[in-house]
Amino acid sequence: MTIRKTRALSFICLLLFVATGRLSAHPPEASRKVYAKNGVLDLRQENFSEILAISGEFKCYWQQLLKPGDEPKSTPFNVNFPGIWNLYPQNKGKKNPGFGYATYSLMLLLPPGERELRLGMPDAYSAYTLYINGELAAANGKVSTSAEGFEPHWQYRYTDLPRRTDTIRLLIQVANFSHHKGGFKDEITIGNRKKMELARQRDGAVDVFLTGCLFMGGLFFLGLYLRGSRDKAILLFSLYSIVFSYRIAGVDNYVLHTIFPDLSWYITIRLEYLSLFLGVSLFALYTRYLYPSVVSPLAVGLVTILCAAFALSSLLMPPVWFSQLINPFLVVMVFCIVYTSFIYIKAFRRRLPGAVYALWSSVALMGVFAISLLHYWGITHALQVLNFMSYIGFFFLQSMVLSHRVSFVLKKAQLEAEQGLKIKSEFLSNMSHEIRTPLNSVIGISHILLENNPREDQARQLEIMLFSANHLLTIVNDILDYNKIEAGKVRFEHIEMDIASVASNVVTGLQAEAEKKQLELYLQLDEALKNKVTGDPTRMFQVLNNLVHNAIKFTHAGSVGLIVKVLRETAQHVSLRFAVKDTGIGISEAHQKIIFERFTQADSSTSRGFGGTGLGLAICKRILELQESELKLNSSPGKGSTFYFDLTFEKHLSVVPVVPEKQRQLPHKDEKPLEGIHILLVEDNPVNVMVARNFLRSWGAGVDVAENGEQALALLDTSRHRLVLMDLHMPVMDGYESARLMRASGIRIPIIALTANLPGEVSGEVYAAGMDDMVVKPFLPAVLYNKVWNYVFPD
């Protein structure tokens, strides 16, 4: 993150805490405190425009549970309310000073007239009964003079005061035999009924909203961990959020107890302490896995062990004992907060991912625990708005930390994937060269042997070898082509294209293969196709050739047809439908959905019976998709298949000739048409040299050989040599550099590249080096012969 962004975030956080501080200048449940004296609170001058918190001197009848009308057994004494019994003089030196029972009394003097006032009762340690003017008004649990018959319960209660009464007598019975404290922690509140109701609803809504945020956020990160990233930091933060969400609804305002009033106090008190102990432990572990390079495992381990011991005690001990552990635990909690902040500062200095968010979250976390501690010690009220904003700020910033962490991991994975794709592409490119080079030798020597009048059995074996080599070459080409398409390296040309000529070449090239299976291979062109179009003839040939070849392979008897039909035509564009129809084995409806996937055929028996990689249709599909078209299929098992697609082309000004142009007639190779022509062959592989030299000499040409580009420069004689056949990858000096130096020295004789790479991978560099054309290895003798003849005799 840049310094500017860091300063901006700091400024926003500062404004947030200043704003929340102003909102929380007074407690949300009470705007002002009022103080009783000697058991009497005079409110006759109040207009109750705000909610009041009752404090001061209450009359206390110790070890007495007085009902209205009962005579006290002893003289009452004044106590500060709210307060706990442990501080009363009567309890000094006792084993469990929090145990006992007492009755509080207070007289409220109200202004005359009718008013709708409500009294809000906080929870007590740990049961109470409230009487107002002699009538039972509210109760939490069951009070008793002993543990027998006593039931603790914590829940917010309220009661509406009589409308026309100007004197209110409060009698509050309190008992405790479960907690280590006894008495009241918070003030009783009084105020206008509607305002009290609104304040309570607001406080409850805030707690429910915040609980929901933490709980759902925890579930979100848990799902992220289970379904995606296995990052332990994400898991621990999700568990921390879920565990700590209980403290929002189950502590202070006890909203959860209001929603479920029959919950056992002994369960909820354990959950309250357990969520605190486990929450701190989980947060410490989360910090360890978040920034392991700057965290001391010893410190985090110590905190985790102590928190686990506290948590275990809350499960096994009675509440009176484990509730006393809160003060020593606060030492652990404060250490954890301070140490975590120190870790975040170190992470920020080292510029670790998301550290700036983590640092600010520690500020928010300190705010949360500071408010909790001050409220627990009775120094301040709950400061709910500030507490809420601190929680939201903390969890939002921690979510930003994890989001930054996930995005950082994803970005790293993306870079690694891109690097892997680059390595894979380079590997496949190198493998292409390494596989094609020996294939060139196998195919070339097979042709040479076939031309030397072998015996019939030898000819059959050579044809099988030649077929296998060509089949291997097709597989290599398919894999490399698909890899190129998936890598997004396919570029489409936008040049003049004769659809009729492309289709005719496809049919002509596969005619021999169809005749071997005694199939009729036909071409059906729409007479409405008058113009040439603009497109990529190479890719069009590849798609049609793949589809027709596939149809021939899966057809035993009958016919295979390539059909080109005009669908629509305007002055500028023409839409064509290309269909390849066969009478082959057909494809079931269930398998039609999967045959276009890579490495997939209709079923395993098809693969065994016909072979192939299953890439042909996938390549056709991807090439068409890149041109915004779709390869479709109509098929029935045993009745044949029709593969078809539609493409719209921009019409070219050239018109398709009615009679195809007469192709240039080349002399037959057996006539030694290259007699007297000298060619310089630049090739470092001895087997490839032997293959090419045998072909050239059989056609009458003289051949000089150079093993690298440097030797080629020394051997080249422009008065003698008419053509250079240049391999591209050689030691000492490669073909590119040698060709550039030849052109730089003014040599203009044709140079044809011999390459084992795919044309699309090297064509740019080949022509940039000044070479005129290329022949891809392994090459057919006819292809090499045509190239050599056309460059030696251009007219």
- Quaternary state, please? single chain
Can you summarize the main beta sheet? 11 strands, mixed
- Backbone shape: elongated
CA gyration radius, whole angstroms:
45 Å
Report the portion of residues in β strands. Answer: 15-25%
CATH top level assignment of the largest domain: Mainly Alpha
Percent helix, as a range, is 40-55%
Q: Figure out the total of helices.
A: 21
Low-confidence stretches: 1-28, 598-613, 658-664
Q: List the domain count as a whole number.
A: 4
By DSSP, the count of extended strands is: 25
CATH topology of the largest domain: Rhopdopsin 7-helix transmembrane proteins
Give me the secondary-structure topology.
Blueprint: H1 3-23, E1 32-36, E2 40-42, E3 52-62, E4 77-81, E5 100-109, E6 117-121, E7 124-125, E8 127-132, E9 135-140, E10 157-160, E11 167-176, E12 183-184, E13 188-192, H2 193-227, H3 232-250, H4 255-259, H5 265-290, H6 297-316, H7 319-322, H8 326-349, H9 355-376, H10 384-450, H11 456-486, E14 495-497, H12 499-516, E15 520-525, E16 531-535, H13 537-553, E17 559-569, E18 573-582, H14 589-592, H15 604-610, H16 616-626, E19 632-636, E20 640-655, E21 678-682, H17 686-698, E22 702-706, H18 709-715, E23 721-727, H19 735-744, E24 751-755, H20 759-768, E25 773-776, H21 781-792
Parallel strand pairs: 1-3, 2-5, 15-17, 21-22, 21-23, 23-24, 24-25
Antiparallel strand pairs: 3-4, 3-5, 3-13, 5-11, 6-10, 6-13, 7-12, 8-9, 8-11, 14-16, 16-20, 17-18, 18-20, 19-20
Helix pairs in contact: 1-10, 2-3, 2-10, 3-5, 5-6, 5-8, 8-9, 9-10, 10-11, 10-17, 11-16, 12-13, 13-16, 18-19
